[in-house]
Specification:
Layout: E1 9-10, E2 19-29, E3 35-45, E4 53-56, E5 61-67, E6 70-71, E7 78-79, E8 83-86, E9 92-101, E10 111-115, E11 118-122, E12 142-151, E13 156-159, E14 162-169, E15 173-184, E16 191-194, E17 197-204, E18 210-217, H1 226-243, E19 251-257, E20 264-265, E21 270-274, H2 287-302, E22 311-312, H3 318-337, H4 339-359, E23 370-371, H5 380-397, H6 399-413, E24 417-418, H7 420-431, H8 440-443, E25 449-457, E26 462-470, E27 485-492, E28 501-503, E29 506-508, E30 511-515, E31 519-524, E32 532-535, E33 544-547, H9 551-560, H10 564-583, H11 589-603, H12 610-617, H13 622-626, H14 634-651, H15 653-662, H16 673-689, H17 696-707, H18 711-724, H19 727-740, H20 744-755, H21 762-768, H22 780-793, H23 795-798, H24 804-817, H25 821-825, H26 839-853, H27 860-870
Parallel strand pairs: 2-12, 18-19, 19-21, 22-24, 25-33
Antiparallel strand pairs: 1-23, 2-3, 3-9, 4-8, 5-6, 5-9, 7-8, 10-11, 11-16, 12-15, 13-16, 14-15, 17-18, 20-21, 25-26, 26-31, 27-30, 27-32, 28-29
Helix pairs in contact: 1-2, 2-3, 3-4, 3-5, 4-5, 5-6, 6-7, 9-10, 10-11, 10-14, 11-14, 12-16, 15-16, 16-18, 17-18, 18-19, 19-20, 20-22, 24-26, 26-27
The chain binds O-methyl-L-tyrosine and zinc ion.
Residues 299, 303, 322, 325 line the site of zinc ion (ZN).
Length: 871
């Protein structure tokens, strides 16, 4: 057991920094094990006080500390495990420090570390303190000049901003000096040094400036950066058009690294990416990879305005940059790939990751009020729900006022570190609305439950709608206030035609009802026939909605709702009800048959696109179903879902075969939305066919795998073979490994696929894969490929009645925590679900959390999440 309990940091304790750093000159003498970092800081006391200077510093071997050129003696400063303290410094002075660090042995991948023989950095959130002594907080904004010296074999020496000087040094070394003219917090600092290939391009901005674009990758990989470059150029132009925001430096660089704790990082002018989110070609990347690359390149680029030019005052405001940037990213993706399909995908992610977080012990508000390790708050709530909150704001005040509010925000706060309050204030002013109530969305955890009931009066041609809301209690928040919930709603008649109506005397066919009280009643008039209510269109709020609609109304929506989100949602609702009934021992065979027929009709709808049909064909995930009832029996849910899959596969057999044959790629591979949609539907058809026990299905899947000329189809084939099982799968799995063993990103897919294998014999194989020579706990991509895919996407095997799945996850968390706490902590989440499980499983899971918490020397990161998960 750890000796001291880590203490939380609270928003209410925020104080402005005691000392500011206006300018800094850093010199890096790079050596793998003994890098020297010299820092010369222009420091100024902030306000009138006599507090000591206390700068962060961790794992730094201090060489010297000097003030205004005078080296300080022993009694003049104190260095402990976390801080450099100088009791009474002057009001303004130059602080010079020199420290030594060991990048090669930095396996936490935070601060300065080595990946693939190159130096690179990761400073968000609190990594800069592992590089030099610094007030490591986002409200200290400074001008950085960086000199890098290294052996010439580290050919490229990169940092933020503009390159101002390069040259040779004695002893086979060279140097480069970079200057960043923009004020920035230290978390946006970056440095890269190494042998790299570069893909270059240019973009002319709307004001006519030419920006050099460079993507640095492993030698030989430059062609695989072409798609990311294309996505970057589209993002830059999109931000000019959609938000009037132009890039501000003359150079924009991206570097890909293989060892990275997260996805990517928006360092000013020098983004660093996990190579899995940057490199793609048709042979090695799937359409899902292409789509993610496009989204993440855009996301990091958009941070230049939302995050970098305007940053966060403190880490409690993380959603200020993340929720907003996800929102902007989603707007871009909708424009690139189609609004409805992108919305459905975003909501699937939200439900799978955020709704489960919000229902469990790790629930927290979009703006939390306390934390132990901020690294633990890069969550789906901050990112995805943070984006939903902005989407609701836009719905509530309208697109024009929203854009005005954004313009005001950029104008007013450029160059500042600010707060969510200041952001919302811009929209209150731009719209002339009081947004006081809206703030509750930032402060209250939990997913609101809303109900909707509709009563039609034929004689009066009126429809009375009654909506209610309630948010269940969550950790630390027992009672919840009502939230302003925008419910976008339209009506259909029973033939599926749009039914016009009047609200407050105005004719319309869609309206937004703001549910801002525990209960709201609205009467629509001029309703000509008994309507089907299509509510929460486009998923207008992140809530769980229950209505009194009958299945026949859902079928009308599935066939014809003009809101494609709700058309998809109707199918999901119907399927979920059927699966849950069967899992509860009450199968509804007639309903299942009817559902299969309706899906068949939807597949034949000439008007809807392939990507949409692929989504229609997929049943709700077991993890989503598990959120709908408690106690959860994962085995029963799996079996019930499989039963419906079998029903669909049998009923739609001819249809699926026709799709599988008819949708083959003809001609060149294109990663665009149309090509990806065609492959998605064809692979979804194959996946469903895999549920059909007819023996020719394995041959079809093997043929699909062998004939594949791109990674999407190879993985599609291998996935179907896995679901069928047997010798064909074993053979294909071995072939796949042999063919791709030298391609780390592809081998990650090989591990991830097996992690998701739901078959009865899979658990032993999965646990055994940690002994495979290609498994590497120190590489986060490889670790997550196996461990996260198993724990998050393979519920039936993860929840094995023996508890072996839970024990395996705990083993991995404990081992990885020894060298990379941030990544270890990100594995804890699946263990938070123990309370909702059936008791015998819940007890086994809880025991593993207890085992983790009892580990000697556990990191703060894992301690925080594991203790919260237990409470
Ligand atoms: N700001 C990045 C996410 C990120 C956060 C932390 C990291 O290392 C600890 C790395 C990246 C983004 O939103 O993309
Ligand atoms: Zn971000």
């Amino acid at each position: 057991m750890r000796t001291e309990t880590p203490q939380p940091i609270r928003l209410s304790d925020y104080r402005p920094p005691a000392y500011l750093v206006d300018d800094v000159h850093l010199t890096f003498d790079l050596q793998p094990n003994t890098t020297r970092v010299k820092a010369r800081l222009t420091v100024r006391r902030n306000g009138d006080h006599s507090e000591p200077l206390a700068f962060n510093g961790e794992r730094l071997k201090a060489v010297s500390v000097a003030i205004d050129g005078r080296v300080l003696g022993d009694g003049e400063y104190v260095i402990d495990a976390e801080l450099l303290t100088i009791p009474a410094p002057p009001a303004a002075f130059t602080l010079e420090t020199e420290v030594e660090i060991d990048p090669e042995n930095n396996k936490a991948l935070e601060g300065l570390y080595m990946s693939g023989g190159r130096f690179c950095t990761q400073c968000e959130a609190e990594g800069f303190r592992k590089i030099t002594f610094w007030p490591d907080r986002p409200d200290v904004l400074s001008r950085f000049t960086v000199r890098i010296e290294a052996d010439r074999r580290f050919r490229h020496l990169l940092a933020n901003g503009n390159l101002v000087e390069t040259g040779e040094l004695p002893g086979g070394r060279h140097f480069a000096v970079w200057n960043d003219p923009f004020l920035k917090p230290c978390y946006l600092f970056a440095l890269v040094a190494g042998e790299l290939d570069v893909l270059e391009d240019k973009l002319v901005t709307k004001s006519g400036r030419t920006v050099d674009l460079r993507i640095y990758v492993d030698p030989g990989m430059a062609p695989r950066a072409a798609y990311a470059m294309d996505a970057l150029k589209r993002s830059m132009t999109w931000d000019e058009e959609a938000y009037g925001r132009e890039y501000d430096l003359d150079l924009f660089m991206i570097v890909a690294v293989r060892d990275f704790n997260f996805g990517a990082m928006e360092n000013k002018g020098l983004n660093i990416f996990n190579s899995s989110l940057l490199l793609a070609d048709p042979a090695t990347a799937t359409d899902v990879d292409y789509e993610r690359i496009e989204a993440v390149v855009a996301h990091e680029y958009f941070h230049n305005w939302t995050g970098n030019r305007i940053t966060c005052r403190d880490w409690f405001q993380l959603c200020l940059k993340e929720g907003l940037t996800v929102f902007r990213e989603q707007g871009f993706c909708a424009d690139m790939r189609g609004e409805a399909v992108q919305r459905i995908k975003a909501v699937k992610v939200l439900r799978m990751r955020q709704f489960s977080e919000d229902q469990g012990p790790l629930a927290h508000p979009v703006r939390p009020s306390s934390y132990m390790k901020i690294d633990n708050f890069y969550t789906a709530t901050i990112y995805e729900k943070g984006s939903e909150v902005i989407g609701m704001l836009k719905t509530l005040i309208g697109a024009d006022a929203f854009r005005k509010g954004m313009d005001l925000y950029f104008d007013r706060h450029d160059g500042e570190a600010t707060t969510v309050e200041a952001f919302i204030q811009c929209f209150a002013e731009a719209s002339g609305r009081d947004l006081g109530d809206f703030f509750a969305w930032y402060e209250q955890a939990g997913t609101p439950r809303i109900t909707l009931s509709a009563t039609y009066d034929e004689a009066a041609r009126t429809l009375e709608l009654v909506l209610t809301q309630a948010t269940p209690p969550s950790n630390g928040q027992e009672t919840k206030r009502p939230l302003p919930i925008p419910v976008t709603l339209g009506l259909l008649d029973h033939e599926g035609r749009t039914l016009a109506f009047e609200r407050d005397g105005q004719a319309m066919d869609e309206t937004v009802i703001v549910l801002d009280q525990p209960e709201v009643k609205v009467t629509l008039t001029g309703v000509d026939s008994l309507p089907v209510v299509s509510a929460l269109r486009g998923f207008s709020a992140p809530v769980v909605m229950k209505t009194d609609a009958e299945p026949k109304e859902r079928y009308v929506q599935l066939a014809a709702d003009p809101d494609l989100f709700n058309r998809w949602e109707a199918g999901q609702d119907l399927a979920a009800d059927l699966i849950l009934s069967r899992a509860a021992g009450k199968p509804n065979e007639v309903g299942e048959e009817r559902y299969a027929e309706a899906v068949g009709r939807a597949l034949n709808d000439q008007a809807s696109d392939n990507a949409f049909k692929a989504l229609l064909l997929a049943l709700p995930a077991e993890t989503d179903l598990a959120l709908m009832r408690s106690p959860v029996d994962p085995g029963a849910l799996h079996d019930a879902r499989e039963a419906l899959r079998l029903r669909l596969a049998l009923h739609l057999d001819a249809e699926l075969r026709r799709l599988h044959t008819g949708l083959q790629d003809l001609g060149e591979f294109s990663p665009d939305a149309a090509g990806a949609g065609r492959r998605a539907l064809r692979n979804a058809a194959l996946e469903l066919m895999a549920a059909n026990p007819r023996n020719d299905v394995a041959d079809i899947a093997l043929g699909h795998f062998r004939a594949a000329v791109n990674m999407t189809d190879q993985i599609g084939g291998l996935n179907a073979l896995m679901l069928i099982g047997g010798p064909a799968f074993e053979e294909a799995l071995a072939d796949f490994y042999a063919r791709w063993k030298d391609e780390p990103l592809v081998i990650d897919k090989w591990f991830a696929l097996q992690g998701r294998d739901p078959s009865e014999t899979a658990l032993g194989r999965i646990l055994g894969l940690t002994a495979h020579p290609a498994f590497d706990q120190k590489n986060p991509n490889r670790l997550r490929a196996l461990v996260s895919s198993f724990a998050n996407f393979n519920p039936v095997r993860f929840h094995d009645p023996s508890g072996a799945g839970y024990r395996f996850l705990a083993d991995q968390i404990i081992a990885v925590d020894g060298f990379n706490p941030m990544t270890a902590a990100r594995l804890v989440d699946p263990l938070g679900g123990w309370r909702r499980l059936k008791p015998e499983l819940g007890a086994l899971m809880k025991a593993q959390l207890e085992r983790i918490v009892a580990v000697e020397g556990l990191s703060k990161n894992v301690y925080e999440l594991a203790t919260r998960a237990l409470n």
